[in-house]
Amino acid sequence: KNNIELNFINSIINSSKKSKNWITEIFLKIYKKYKIKKVSLIGLSYKKNNSSIKNSPSLNFLKNTNKLNLEINIYDDLIKKYNGKNISNFESAIENTELVIFARDFVNSGLFIKQIFSKKSKLKFCIDPFNLVKKEYISNSKIKVFQIGKK
Fold it and tell me: What is the pLDDT of residues 125-149, one digit of tens each?
C-alpha cells in the first residue's frame, strides 16, 4: 500500500527460521552418518535468563527427532521439569552422552563446557550455535564441534 521495501524485514524472518532449525539440521546430518543414540540437550528455554520455551529451538529439535529412538537427556537451570521429568541436574543430563547440544547461552557456560570437555566420556560431537566452546577446548579435544559461521 505504501510502497515500502520489505527485503530487510524478510531477511530477519528468514534468519530467524534458519536459526530455529539449525540445531536440528546439523544433528540430522550427524545422525545419518553416525547413528548417535544418546544426546544431551543443554537448554530447553528460549534464551539466557528467560524460562519461556515458546518458539524454542530445543522444542523444535525434540519434535523433529521424536521418531528416531534417541535417549535425550535435558538440562535447564531455569526450568525444573519437562514432561514430568526433572531436568535440573546437569550431571545426569551429560552422563555417558555421545553428543551434546548447547541450545541456549548460559550465565556460567564456561563451567559447563569445562566440565564436559575435561571428562573421560563417550562424547564425540558438540553442537554449539552460540559459539560457547572456546578454541582451546576444540583444538585440545577429539570432539567434533559444530558452530555457526565456523568450520
Answer: 999 998 888 888 777 778 899 998 8
Q: Is the pTM of this model over 0.90?
A: no
Q: For residue 42, what are the β-bridge partners?
A: 75, 102
Per DSSP, 127 falls in state E
Look at the alpha carbons of 97, 56, 29, 134 in this order and tell me if their dihedral is positive or negative. Answer: negative
Instruction: Tell me what percent of the chain is helix, strand and coil, each rounded to the nearest 5.
Output: 40, 20, 45
Report the candidate in 139, 61, 140 with the shortest Cα–Cα distance to residue 101: 61
Residue written as grid cell 523433529: 64
AA identity, residue 117: F
Report the SS3 class of residue 18: helix
- In angstroms, rounded to a whole number, what is the distance separating the alpha carbons of residues 7 and 34? 39
Task: Give the whole-angstrom CA distance, residue 97 versus residue 123.
Answer: 6
Answer positive or negative: Cα dihedral of 28, 30, 31, 33. Answer: positive
Cβ proximity of 116 and 100 under 8 Å: yes
Question: What are the start-end ranges of the H helices in the chain?
Answer: 7-34, 57-65, 90-94, 109-118, 135-139
Give the CA-trace dihedral at 101, 102, 108, 112, to 10 degrees: 10
